[in-house]
């Protein structure tokens, strides 16, 4: 399919800075550098698009409120957060290309390691930076680059499907991180049990896709998954193991399975790809989590293929 209409989705170019009276001058200069690098990347991408035989429009990601359905390609300029935000408004038909506008510089991290964390944007799912943006874009426009289908998570609460799919992961937990989460879980296939019922008292339940297995899931002790896997990985966070079944605290949810969770706290929240998108739950709610969501077409960096 020829790509004629493009949407350029932009991370805001303004980075909030702490009061200068309480901040180390190196940190202020670092933040100013980040803002300039990102702003320059936006201008660079727009200049490249002006040279191409395509129609395009630029939109701030925070102004996105309706499903994206009138373009042939979405280009996000920011980091993984911008690509994740775009994914919440996309179906399985339109592909997305992530441009990491502010990549981490290892020499900078080493230089400032004794003063502060100088990491910039990870851009794990971003196939382009300003260094190769035109090359990657030309490959897409000429049909040489093909997107990959990434698994997303479908969530239902009391048999009502949520409208937002998770590309990275979800966290089901009490709204207060200091409070205990109480729930039970069981893996099912075709509504038949594949595991025993596990009653949990913990700090919550995390479920990730293959794409999200390198993020919070891995930090908590999970394992990397092949990027194109259709399985999901789940982990009960910090379980209190009284009466629990250890073998089922962490594992895989196969593509033809779902994990059913009964929430038994007064309050709860399902956090989708971070904290900005969430859904409140309450005592007695039944949550079903599976990989039956529409996939997302993503142009991936070569290192992930």
TrEMBL record:
<keyword id="KW-0520">NAD</keyword>
<comment type="subunit">
    <text>Homodimer.</text>
</comment>
<dbReference type="Pfam" id="PF01513">
    <property type="entry name" value="NAD_kinase"/>
</dbReference>
<keyword id="KW-0808">Transferase</keyword>
<dbReference type="GO" id="GO:0005737">
    <property type="term" value="C:cytoplasm"/>
</dbReference>
<keyword id="KW-0963">Cytoplasm</keyword>
<dbReference type="InterPro" id="IPR017437">
    <property type="entry name" value="ATP-NAD_kinase_PpnK-typ_C"/>
</dbReference>
<dbReference type="InterPro" id="IPR017438">
    <property type="entry name" value="ATP-NAD_kinase_N"/>
</dbReference>
<keyword id="KW-0418">Kinase</keyword>
<dbReference type="GO" id="GO:0003951">
    <property type="term" value="F:NAD+ kinase activity"/>
</dbReference>
<keyword id="KW-0547">Nucleotide-binding</keyword>
<dbReference type="GO" id="GO:0042736">
    <property type="term" value="F:NADH kinase activity"/>
</dbReference>
<protein>
    <recommendedName>
        <fullName>NADH kinase</fullName>
        <ecNumber>2.7.1.86</ecNumber>
    </recommendedName>
</protein>
<keyword id="KW-0067">ATP-binding</keyword>
<dbReference type="GO" id="GO:0019674">
    <property type="term" value="P:NAD+ metabolic process"/>
</dbReference>
<keyword id="KW-0521">NADP</keyword>
<dbReference type="InterPro" id="IPR016064">
    <property type="entry name" value="NAD/diacylglycerol_kinase_sf"/>
</dbReference>
<comment type="similarity">
    <text>Belongs to the NAD kinase family.</text>
</comment>
<dbReference type="InterPro" id="IPR002504">
    <property type="entry name" value="NADK"/>
</dbReference>
<dbReference type="GO" id="GO:0006741">
    <property type="term" value="P:NADP+ biosynthetic process"/>
</dbReference>
<dbReference type="GO" id="GO:0005524">
    <property type="term" value="F:ATP binding"/>
</dbReference>
């Amino acid at each position: 399919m020829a790509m004629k209409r493009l949407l350029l989705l932009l991370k805001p170019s303004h980075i909030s800075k702490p009061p200068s009276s309480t901040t180390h001058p190196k940190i202020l200069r670092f933040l100013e550098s980040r803002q300039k690098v990102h702003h320059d990347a936006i201008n660079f991408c727009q200049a490249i698009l002006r040279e191409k035989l395509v129609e395009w429009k630029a939109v701030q990601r925070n102004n996105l409120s309706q499903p994206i359905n009138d373009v042939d390609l979405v280009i996000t300029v920011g980091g993984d957060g911008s690509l994740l935000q775009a994914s919440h408004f996309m179906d399985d038909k339109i592909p997305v290309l992530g441009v990491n506008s502010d990549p981490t510089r290892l020499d900078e991290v080493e230089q400032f390691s004794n003063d502060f964390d100088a990491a910039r944007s990870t851009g794990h799912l971003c196939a382009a930076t300003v260094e190769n943006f035109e090359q990657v874009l030309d490959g897409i426009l000429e049909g040489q680059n093909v997107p990959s289908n990434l698994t997303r998570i479908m969530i239902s609460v009391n048999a009502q499907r949520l409208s937002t799919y998770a590309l990275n992961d979800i966290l089901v937990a009490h709204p207060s991180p200091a409070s205990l989460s109480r729930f039970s879980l069981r893996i099912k296939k075709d509504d038949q049990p594949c595991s025993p019922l596990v009653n949990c008292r913990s700090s919550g339940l995390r479920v990730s896709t293959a794409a999200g297995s390198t993020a919070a899931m891995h930090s908590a002790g999970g394992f990397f998954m092949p990027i194109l896997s259709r399985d999901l990985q789940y982990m009960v966070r910090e379980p209190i193991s009284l009466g629990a079944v250890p073998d089922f605290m962490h594992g895989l949810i196969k593509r033809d399975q779902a994990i059913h969770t009964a929430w038994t706290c007064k309050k709860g929240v399902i956090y989708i790809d971070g904290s900005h998108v969430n859904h409140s739950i309450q005592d007695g709610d039944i949550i079903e989590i599976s990989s039956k969501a529409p996939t997302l077409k993503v142009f991936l960096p070569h290192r992930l293929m």
